[in-house]
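hey all, quick one before standup. I had two proteins in the batch that finished overnight and I want to keep them in one place so we stop losing track of which output belongs to which input. First protein below, input sequence then C-alpha cells straight from the run.
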Amino acid sequence: MSAKRDISVLVQRTLRTVRNFLLSPKSREFLIFLFFLVVAFFFWMLQKLNDTYEMELAIPVRVENVPDNVVMTMPPPASVRVQVKDRGTVLINYMLGRSFYPLTLDFGELENESGRVRVESSSFQKMVTSQLMNTTQVGAIRPYAFDIVYTRGKAKKVPVVVQSKVTTEKQYYISEMHVSPDSILVYAPEEILDTLTAVYTKSFACTQVDDTIRRHETLAPVFGAKFVPEGVDVEICTDMYTEKKLEIPIHPVNFPADKMLKTFPSKVSLTFQVGLAHFKSVTENDFLITVTYDELLKCNSDKYRVKLKSFPNNVSYIRIDPPEVDFIIEQVNTFETP
C-alpha cells in the first residue's frame, strides 16, 4: 500500500509542477514562440514544395496474351525507370499516394519469325505520360530499349517433387503428403526436355508440426523452360504414434515331410508403434515370422533368434519378446498304405 501511495503522490506533484509551469508568464512566452515557429516552418515547407525537383519513378512492365507453348528465354525487365520533373507537391503524391498501372505489351503484336523482339521506350512513352499529371515533364526512360527473346517449346508432362524439411512434435509423424497437381506440363526446347525428368518446388521448412499443413508452393525455375501451372498445392498430414501389441506364430518353411518343428513358446509378442489412423487396420496377418529347415541345421545351439521376415510400412520401433525361442525338430512316423 505504501508503494501505491508514493506513486500517487509523485504523479500529483508532477502534474502540479507542469500546471504551474504552463500558467506562468514564462511558459506563455515559450508557447507563443513555439506556435510561430511551427507556422513559420509550415510556410517554409509550402514554399519549398512549390519549387521544381527531379525524381525517378519505377513503372512495372507486363506482357499479356502469351501462348502456353511460348518460353521467354530473355523476358522483359520487371520495370522501367522514368525520370520526371515537377513541383515538390506533385512528386510527393507520386511517392506516397500514386500507384502506376503496368506498361502492358501485347505479345500478338510483338511476335515475329526470328523469335527476338526489340522494344524501344518510344513505343510506350504515351502509356507513361497518360498516368502522370499534365504539369509533369518526362525525361529519360531507362532502359532506352530492351530485347525479348522467346522460343516455341514442345510440351512434356513431368512429376512434381516437393523439397521440404518438416519436423514434427514428439509422438507425431508425417503420415501422408499430397501434391496437387502431382505433375505439370513443361514447355521448353527439345534439348532441355530430354534431360528433364522432374520439377522441384522451392525448398521450405516447417518445425514442430502437430497438425495438417496446407501450402501453395512455387516451382524452382529451370532456365529456358516454362511451367503450366507455375505452382502446386502441398498438403502435409500428420498422425500421432501409439503402441500396439500382437501375438505372432512362428511358421516352419521347407521342412521335410518326416520332420516337425516345435518352438517354445510357439508364438512371440510384437510390440510396435503405429499411427492412430492405422491402429485398427494392422493385424497379425500383416506380420510374418518364418524359420527354414536349413537355418536350424546350421544353428549351433538349441535356441533360435527370431527374425521378422515382413511387416507393414506404417509401423516402426518393433520389439520382439522373447528375442530367442527354444526349438526341437521331431521325427514324424510315416506309414505307407498297402
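OK second protein, same deal, sequence then C-alpha cells:
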Amino acid sequence: MARRKKIYEGKGKILYEGPEPGTIVQYFKDDAAPFHSQGQDVVEGKGVLNNRLSEFFMSGLNQIGVPTHFIRRLNMREQLVRTCEIIPLEVIVRNFAAGAMSERLGIEEGTQLPRPIVEYCFKDERLNNPMVTEEHIAAFGWASQQDMDDILSLALRVNDFMSGLMLGVGIRLVDFKIEVGRIYEGDYQRLVVADEISPDSCRLWDIETGRKLDRESHGGPGHLTDAYSEVARRLGVMPKNASHMVKPKLIN
C-alpha cells in the first residue's frame, strides 16, 4: 500500500492527501488535547468516537441543506472530506454562559443567555486563539462582509440543528465552535462547515444531572471516553455494547 502524503497534523487529527483531486482524508487521533486535565497523553478510543459523531452531525447538516466539507466515512478513524480554504476564525456559538464568557463577564455558569451569542476567535495557537471582533476581521481581510453574513447564518443553523438533536436525548448544548471553509467551483465560491463537530468542540451537559459529557468531563482515566460514549449511545451512533475501544490482547 502506497504511503500517503501528510498535509497537516494537529492536536486531534492528521490530514492526508485524498485519493481524488480536491479531497482530503481526516484521521482522528486518540491524543489528549491540552484542555484534557487527566494528565494523559492518549485517551483510548476518543478518535473513533469523534470520527463517528462528526460523521453523524455533518451528514445530518448536509441532509437539511447546511453545506459541509464531509463526503463519507472511510473507516472507524478516517473520513473523506472536500478540500477547502479554511477561514482563520473559530466561530463560537453560546446558548448558556460557561468557560471564558463566565470569567470575562462574571455570569454564573449555566445561566441561559437571552439569545444565542456568536463570537469569533483568530485561529493562532501561538497567541492562544484570541477573541476578535468583526472590525478586526474586516480590517485584516480575513473575511468579507458577505462572508461574515454567511458565516453567521451557517453558525445559527448549525445551532438550531444541534440544539434540537441534543435536547431530544436529554443533553444541553451549552456552546460549540465550528470552522468555516471556502470551496471554489469554477468562478463560484461557497462557504461550508469544515473541520469537525464532536464533544471535543462542544460543551454538552446532561439536562437532569448537569454531568459534563464533553472535553471537560472529570474523573479517572476512563471518564472522558465514557462521556463521549454516552453521547454516542444516546444519539444511536454506536451500539450500547460496542467494544471497539478495547485494544486486542496477545494470547500466550
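Flagging for whoever picks this up: The chain has five helices and twelve strands. The chain has a mean pLDDT of 91.
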